[in-house]
Amino acid sequence: QNDITRPKGYTVSWHSNPEIEKHHFGHAHPMKPWRLTLAKGLIMAYGMHAAMDTYVSRPATKEELEDFHSEEYLDYLKSALVTVPDDNEIKDFNLGNTDCPIFEGLFNYCSMYSGASIDAARKLCNNESDIAINWSGGLHHAKKAEASGFCYVNDIVLAIVQLLRKHPRVLYIDIDVHHGDGVEEAFWSTDRVLTLSIHKYDGMNFFPGTGDLDRTGPDSEENPGAHHAINVPLSDGIGDQQYVWLFKTIVGMCVQRFQPTAIVLQCGADSLAGDRLGRFNVQVQGHGACVTYCKSLGIPLLLVGGGGYTPRNVARAWAHETSIAIGCDGKLNPTIPQHTPYRSHFRHETIFPTLEEILGDPRGNKNTDKKIREIVSSITEQLRFVNN
Ligand code: TV1
Ligand code: CA
Ligand code: ZN
Known about the structure:
Layout: E1 12-16, H1 18-21, H2 35-45, E2 53-56, H3 62-65, H4 71-79, H5 106-125, E3 131-134, H6 155-166, E4 170-174, H7 181-186, E5 193-200, E6 229-234, H8 240-258, E7 262-266, H9 284-296, E8 301-304, H10 311-326, H11 355-359, H12 369-383
Parallel strand pairs: 1-2, 1-3, 3-8, 4-5, 4-7, 5-6, 7-8
Helix pairs in contact: 2-10, 5-6, 8-9, 8-12, 9-10
The structure holds ligand TV1, calcium ion and zinc ion (ZN).
């Protein structure tokens, strides 16, 4: 049995609101907010909530949302009527297409997940929390006045804006399989935020089509943001060994050069093996090792969710990462990465997975060790220009 107690010497806060999970993007849309219900089911079945300060988050206010988004965009988002998605029509603010449909309660959904990230950031600022968690956040593609890739409001940007009130330097790390373009763009011209995204890159063949290795910040050396964007473009099929080595090596170098006073880790679970949209072969263990490494740095840490399109794998990853945050990983019975989730929490699934299905059909690894080393040397060169 599990006897889960509060971690000694530090505090973990969990920010969520059951309202968020009830929204639907529409039939066949890969983004399923009910994956959060699955994750919460596992976290609570293990008794992990007893080890955290749990907060029911509130919707972000208009003023808070305007810290990043334009008033016109927010007004439109609030008043947008449910429409039939139509890709051929060019819509205002990139809203109402197949990726970003207008659905029932859309504005409520956006303000709720954003409120949770803002609350989480404030807890870190007040020193009331050392690791703050919002699995409903992490929607990294949203722009100032534009929805993009299932993201409407950029809760990460809003949370970082809160952190910057107290923290001189914030390191943003993004392990979602997609490029964290919205966050990168928002802090493109500042040297107070170092953005690092690891993602699949294949030119315009993989969304959003940006994030090549040479995308390092504004071209002008006079611009303070120069060199403060780091991109790690990868090919299909990368596994735990290469991924975790890359993560620790690059994050280690970034922390040494940049000396962040707070870290935001976007834990998009679409980088896991077997994801419906992703192409990587990272396991729950490898994904979790990234969280373990960030925690070990002893810097205030904000964990947010993101992508993740095979719901049972998303739930297993975020439950496992919650256990890492509170320090009970490896002590759970059954251990999350190995066990097949039990029926009651997976009643939405019609087909029960075999172990092979959970681990993902072995995708051929297209990433050579040589290429991985080249990425590290290029970023080593880039970081010579970053100092604090
Ligand atoms: C409705 C129904 C929408 C089925 C979208 C996959 C669907 C996709 C769907 C889909 C899908 C994308 C593009 C093409 C841009 C478009 C949360 C016009 C089976 C953070 C967002 C990916 C990832 C967007 C978000 C991408 C995140 N892929 N079926 N749409 N062009 N959009 O390629 O980073 O995880 O796929
Ligand atoms: Ca990424
Ligand atoms: Zn993604």
